[in-house]
Amino acid sequence: MPTTLGTGEHRYRVVENFAKLPDGWSLTDVASVAVDSKDRVYVFNRGDHPMVVLDREGNFIKSWGEGVFSRAHGLHIDADDNLYCTDDGDHTVRKCSTDGKVLLTIGIPDKPAPFMSGQPFHRCTHTALSPKGEIYVSDGYGNSCVHKYTPDGKLIKTWGEPGTDPGQFNIVHNIATDADGWVYVADRENHRVQVFDGNGKFETQWNNLHRPCALCCCGGGKQPNFVIGELGPGMAVNRKVPNLGPRLSIVDHTGKRIARLGGEQGPGVETGKFLAPHGIALDSRGDIYVGEVGVTDWKTSFPDTEMPAAVRVTRCLQKLEKIPT
Question: Which UniProt keywords are given for this protein, alphabetically ordered (predicted)?
Fold first, then answer.
C-alpha cells in the first residue's frame, strides 16, 4: 500500500522514486522548486546541472544554468512563468526565462555586502513578488533583513536587523506574499513566521513552528493556506528528540495549523519521512513538491551513519500527491 501523510482534506500519497534523471546524473541538494503554468517542475539544485526541468510525472525534459549559478538557494515563479533564482553563493537574484535566459540580475556576483550591514546582499535566500510586481528579497545568512525592489531592480527600501523582537530576524530564510500584498517571512532560528504589510510594518507572528525553512503560499484568494517546511533539531543535545520534525505543516491565513505531514519520529530516508525540507511548490492539482538539502544536513542528523547514495542522486526531491476528498 502507498504511504499516506496528513489528515482529513489534507491527505497526500507519497510518490516514490519520482525524479527520472539521465544516467549518471545527481541532484544532490535540492534547494528549491517551482511549478509553471504547464505543470512543469523546475528543480533548483546544487548538482552539476543547477536547473533540472521535469514534467509532473517526473520525466526529464531539459536542464540549464550550468556555469551560471554558484550555489542554488531560492526559487520563485511569477504569473508569466519568469523564474527568480536566488544564489546565496554569489549573492545575487537572477530573473530568468523558462529556457534559462537571464533577464535581470540584482546584486553584484561574488561581491557580498559587509556582514550584517543591512546592505544588499550577503548570502540572500529567497524572493517573492508584490501584486504590483515589486520584488522582495530575504537576506539571509550574512544579513538580517528584507529588501524591496521595483520590478526592474531598483532598491526601494530595507527593513530588519538581528535580534528576537518583532521585526528582527535570526536567519531570514524564506519569504512569500499573498494577493493582498502581505509579506510572510520565515524567521528560521527564531522559530516563527513574521507577517508584515507591503512596506515592512510588523503585523503579527506565527509561533509553534520548529525552524521554519520552506514557505509556500497556496492559492491566490483572500484567505490562502500556507505550507511550511520545518527542519528537525540542529544540535546534538536534542538530535533524537521526537516530534520536532523535519516535517511539513499546513496553516491557514491566520497561522492556525490545519494539518501536519510527518516528523513524529525524526528524519529518515524511509518513505513518509523527510530529511531537510528547504523549498516547496504546488502544481495545478494541489500536489506538493518538496526540495530537501539532505546532503548538507546529513551529518547534523546522522553524524555516525554513512549517507546512502540515493540521497545524493534523487532522494532530495519528493512529490506528495493530493488524495481527492
Answer: Glycoprotein, Repeat, Signal
Q: What is the DSSP letter of 311?
A: I
Query: Considering the entire predicted model, what is its pTM?
Result: 0.97
Q: What is the dihedral of CA 215, 219, 220, 222, to 10 degrees?
A: -90
Averaged over 229-257, what is the pLDDT?
96
Closest CA to 277 of 230, 245, 313: 230
* Tens of pLDDT, residues 264-295: 999 999 999 999 999 999 999 999 999 999 99
Report whether 301 contacts 275 (CB < 8 A): yes
Mean pLDDT of 126-148: 98
Question: CA 71: distance to chain centroid?
Answer: 14
8-state DSSP, 59: B
- The count of other CB atoms within 10 Å of the CB of residue 72 is 28
**Cell numbers 507591503: residue:** 198
Q: What is the C-alpha separation between 39 and 56, in angstroms, rounded?
A: 6
At 86-107, the pLDDT tens digits run 999 999 999 999 999 999 999 9
Long-range contacts of 150-155 (CB under 8 A, 24+ apart): 152/104, 153/104, 153/105, 153/106, 155/120
Domain ranges for the chain: 4-322
* Nearest to 234, CA basis, from 185, 191, 291: 191
Q: Judge residue 4's burial from the number of C-beta atoms within 10 Å of its C-beta, 0-12 exposed, 13-18 middle, 19 or more buried.
A: middle
Q: Which amino acid is at 230?
A: E
Q: What is the pLDDT of residue 219?
A: 77
Rounded Cα distance, 20 and 17, in Å = 7
Give me the pLDDT at residue 222, please: 80
What value, to the nearest 5°, has the Cα angle with vertex 50 and ends 48 and 56? Answer: 115
Question: Is domain 4-322 in CATH 2.120.10.30, yes or no?
Answer: yes
Beta bridge pairs of residue 288: 282, 320
The helix/strand count (H/E) of the chain reads as 2, 27
